[in-house]
Specification:
The complex is a heterodimer. Chain A contains eight helices and seven strands, in the order E-E-H-E-E-E-E-E-H-H-H-H-H-H-H. Chain A has helices spanning 33-46, 118-125, 147-157, 164-168, 175-187, 195-208, 219-223, 231-248, and strands at 3-10, 17-24, 69-70, 73-74, 96-100, 109-111, 114-115. Chain B is built from 18 helices and 21 strands. The model of chain B has no long low-confidence stretch (mean pLDDT 95). Classes of the chains: A alpha+beta, B alpha/beta. Chain B: Keywords: Cell membrane, Electron transport, FAD, Flavoprotein, Membrane, Oxidoreductase, Transport.
């Protein structure tokens, strides 16, 4: 099939950007969206034009590297699926697709469709861990974790850190991302010791990095490729409330 | 065929510096022998860690905790995106929680046997010994492993083992273990002990007076070159499976850092040992950019079969039970669908080559959950494999609850890598190599759930000891950026980038990579012959020349340029591929992932030659396109006497 692609081109962080239109022929329905970009890039290069820069790595939906706004939706039209898993069979012959980078103050554009998400790393560094040194842990079965609790922790730990939640949010809030991390660790006995500090530090860091506030519209949940529930945000808010009250005492 | 090996320049044999004593005491003995670094002095040492997968992230965290100053580099935008994140199935440990007869010795034995007696016993034994600590530590870090109702950890079984020793976190074990190590590293970043440098590619190793003292990095966002100096370098850069173009590796996985270290004196060991994983989603078209693996854990409940009749094109569900050939269960009654990866892969290829393959291309076999769903119910199956089923459906548009999955083998993990001694030190002192980037633990085949174990064992539990010994026992003079060795490495790195841009030819980088991949798959893939490997060597050489005459790299080296990154990696793959083919040609036997058609039993099974090839082939670089010198490390099997590997 034939697809018309309108794609954001921006040479560098301080350069102006613009939309460019390309026709891609012979698009196979089994191709992924990224493979369609590969095909287009091959064509551009043979014409002596610079290929479109886009982020990708594992192409298996787990590394969280890829991520584009497709027709205004983070990772495109399919729910709970990253860009690399979007197949061209979701489109039909003659469709026009608009591809833009994730937009958020905390995610500056580096080039074309590539954004800088290092703010996510800094959020994690501000408290998303359990302070334990290597080599001294007790036997893994010494502290039982009920299956249900372990499953809840896992559901939140499944976050791939792609940033779609931020891109989908009108306020560019990182609440779902931080909520997932806070929930994961506060469910587990291992993470309980530092739970108050963790949530206070991570929430403060969100503001510092320029993420907006959460207004509970749940767009983040709809866009999340890992299917993280907005309950994570509620959990974060509860943890934050408890921690703030205790901090005042 | 002796002529091949007669023509090889053979250097001195190499000593792995394995401690004396009984197998179970070696690691303890080594720890006792090691010199320690005074805690107050640790902060004066700078350690460079390249790569942030399981090995790199765990090493960075553990070394930071000890008080060293660590500089950590990765090619991705975040350390969390290293390809370890894609591992699905699990991690082994000898906990024997299920009480089914497991022990450190049995995990060790299974791993050595699974590796077809081509790994180093002492390293594997240590791996089995520390495996239990890995689980303890990961749980303490908050890794949400699967649990029983009572709250204890649960296990499943994997290929090559008859006990349940694999710990897992749904189908995302690699992700959870990596995020655990990344979190541990983040804690050290917060304290200032670890400094991170994402979006950096290692261009060269700086060797001063024969000792590794630093690296040249290229900032992939700005294009700038940087010199980073330190007292030791840990290379944790993963495997080279992408030399095949199509593989299950992430697109950015490459051999560049390891290859550049090789060119600076680090021997490359057993490059021809490549694991072809049996449970991959088959390729569907020529645009295909990579292959997707389905976790091997699926073989616990999925039954593998093809139609008994050649060319039977009926839909799977219309083929009656007695017309199905469950060939693994037939051929290997005691291991059945859980035979090791090399055995399962070859059997699938054999059936497809014989005309029994299924699907549009005929290059696939069925992995069927019908019986498991009937036996345990859809919900139970979904709880175990739900995300994998969903992923399969997204890619193929087929529902595996209704119709069997189609699978075919694909290049997955590379068991070869830079040669290291027992301390994980390469032939360049001060250069340590961890995880998939080294060669030591998996022999000619890797059993399931052992890669995650090795990455974390090396990073959390081996390198913190052995690097201390190196630092405490070496006299390391201060080196500055104006040292001639630094300048030379910098000039070479810059020249390489410029020369790529200056070719200004007519063919894209990707087209060269695809052509290289096709040569590798056709001649150095699941089955190899002397003739094919010679052809491969010639074609790789021609392709390399063509690349340097006709590749087209757009843009400049002075900014963010993904095409240029790819070009540099393909240039190195082209040099490396020739060594790969050569290693495969010289190894006149079949073992693990290396199957030479000339060396098979009448039943078509791999036939090892322990008399002539019971060694590690460690190659010394002699110049691009020049024949490398072969150094042998003889392998002693004291505990596990080599026997014919049988899974019948």
């Amino acid at each position: 099939m034939r697809i018309k692609l309108k794609v954001w081109r921006q040479a560098g962080p301080d350069q102006p950007g613009r939309l460019e239109t390309h026709e891609v022929e012979d698009v196979n329905p089994d191709m992924s969206f990224l493979e369609m970009l590969d095909v287009l890039n091959e064509k551009l290069m043979l014409e002596g034009k610079e290929p479109i820069a886009f982020d990708h790595d594992c192409r298996e939906g787990i590394c969280g590297t890829c991520g584009v706004m497709i027709d205004g939706q983070a990772h495109g039209p399919n729910r709970n699926s990253p860009t690399c898993q979007l197949r061209m069979r979701s489109y039909k012959d003659g469709d026009t697709i608009l591809a833009e980078p994730f937009r958020a103050k905390a995610f500056p554009v580096l080039k074309d469709l590539v954004v800088d998400r290092s703010s996510f790393d800094r959020l994690q560094q501000s408290g998303g861990y359990v302070s334990v040194n290597t080599g001294n842990a007790p036997d893994a079965n010494a502290i039982p974790v009920p299956q249900k609790i372990a499953e809840h922790a896992m559901s939140n730990a499944a976050c791939i850190g792609c940033g779609a939640c931020v891109a989908a949010c009108k306020n560019a809030s990182a609440a779902l991302f931080v909520g997932a991390k806070v929930s994961h660790l506060s469910f587990l006995p291992q993470g309980k010791g530092e739970r108050h500090e963790r949530v206070l530090n991570m929430v403060a860091k969100m503001d510092e990095e320029g993420f907006g506030a959460c207004t509970n519209t749940s767009e983040c949940q709809a866009a999340c490729p890992a299917g993280i529930s907005v309950q994570a945000i509620a959990k974060m808010n509860r943890e934050y409330m408890a921690a703030s009250l205790l901090a005042e005492e | 065929m002796a002529t091949v090996n007669e023509n090889i320049a053979t250097g001195s044999s190499i000593d792995a510096r394995v401690p004396e004593g009984a197998m179970h005491e070696k690691w303890e003995t080594r720890i006792k022998q090691m010199k320690l670094v005074n805690p107050a002095n640790k902060r004066k040492f700078e350690i460079i860690v390249v790569g942030t997968g399981l090995a790199g992230a765990s090493a960075s965290a553990a070394l930071g905790e000890l008080g060293y100053h660590v500089k950590t580099f990765c090619i991705n935008d975040s350390p969390r995106r290293a390809h370890s994140i894609a591992a699905q199935g699990g991690i082994n440990a000898a906990k024997n929680y299920p009480n089914d007869g497991d022990s450190v010795w049995r995990l060790f034995y299974d791993t050595v046997k699974g590796g077809d007696y081509r790994s180093r016993e002492s390293n594997v034994y240590r791996l089995a010994q520390v495996s239990n600590k890995i689980i303890d530590h990961c749980v303490a870090l908050g890794v949400p492993f699967a649990r029983e109702y009572g709250g204890t950890l649960t296990n499943r079984s994997f290929g090559g083992a008859q006990v349940s020793r694999t710990f897992y976190a749904r189908g995302q074990t690699g992700q959870q273990l990596l995020l655990g190590a990344y979190a541990a590293m983040n804690r050290q970043i917060q304290t200032g002990k670890v400094e991170t440098f994402p979006k950096r590619e290692m261009m060269d190793l700086i060797v001063v007076d024969g000792v590794a003292r630093g690296v040249i990095m290229r900032n992939l966002v700005t294009g700038e070159f940087e010199t980073h100096l330190g007292d030791a370098v840990c290379l944790c850069t993963g495997g080279y499976g992408n030399v095949y173009y199509l593989s299950t590796n992430a697109k950015n996985c490459n051999v560049t850092a390891a290859w550049r270290c090789h060119k600076r004196g680090a021997y490359f060991a057993n490059p021809c040992y490549t694991q072809i994983h049996p449970t991959c989603i088959p390729a569907s078209g020529s645009y295909q950019s990579k292959l997707t693996l389905m976790s091997e854990s699926l073989r616990n409940d999925g039954r593998i079969w093809v139609p008994k009749a050649k060319g039977d094109k009926r839909p799977a569900n219309q083929i009656p039970e007695d017309e199905r050939d469950y060939y693994l269960e037939e051929r290997y009654p005691s291991f059945g669908n859980l035979v090791p990866r090399d055995v399962a892969s070859r059997a699938a290829k054999e059936r497809c080559d014989a005309g029994y393959g299924v699907g549009a291309t005929g290059q696939a076999v069925y992995l069927d959950f019908r019986d498991a769903i009937e036996r345990d119910g859809k919900q139970t199956v979904a709880a175990k494999y739900g995300n994998l089923f969903q992923m399969y459906e997204e890619i193929t548009a087929e529902d595996p609850y209704q119709v069997p999955m189609r699978i075919y083998p694909a290049v997955h993990y590379t068991m070869g890598g830079l040669w290291v001694d027992y301390d994980l030190q390469s032939t360049v002192p001060g250069l340590f190599v961890l995880g998939e980037a080294n060669f030591s633990d998996h022999g000619a085949n890797r059993l399931g759930a052992s890669a995650l174990m090795q990455g974390l064992s090396d990073g959390y539990f081996v390198i913190p000891y052995t690097i201390g010994n190196h630092l405490a026992s070496s006299k390391l003079e201060k080196v500055t950026e104006d040292h001639p060795a630094c300048k030379e490495a910098m000039v070479e790195a810059r020249n390489k980038i410029e020369s790529l841009i200056n070719v200004n030819g007519s063919k894209t980088v990707d087209s060269f990579h695809r052509r290289l991949g096709a040569i590798m798959w056709d001649y150095c893939g699941m089955a190899r012959t002397a003739e094919g490997l010679q052809t491969a060597s010639e074609r790789i050489r021609e392709l390399r020349e063509e690349f340097w005459n006709d590749v087209k790299v757009l843009g400049s080296g002075a900014d963010f340029n993904q095409n240029l990154e790819h070009a540099g990696r393909v240039a190195d793959f082209l040099e490396f591929a020739e060594l790969f083919a050569h290693d495969a040609l010289h190894r006149e036997e079949s073992c693990g992932g290396h199957f030479r058609e000339e060396h098979q039993t009448p039943e078509g099974e791999a036939k090892r030659d322990d008399e002539n090839f019971k060694y590690v082939a460690a190659w010394e670089f002699k110049g691009v396109g020049e024949q490398e010198t072969l150094h042998k490390e003889e392998l002693d099997f004291v505990e596990c006497k080599p026997s014919t590997r049988s899974y019948k």
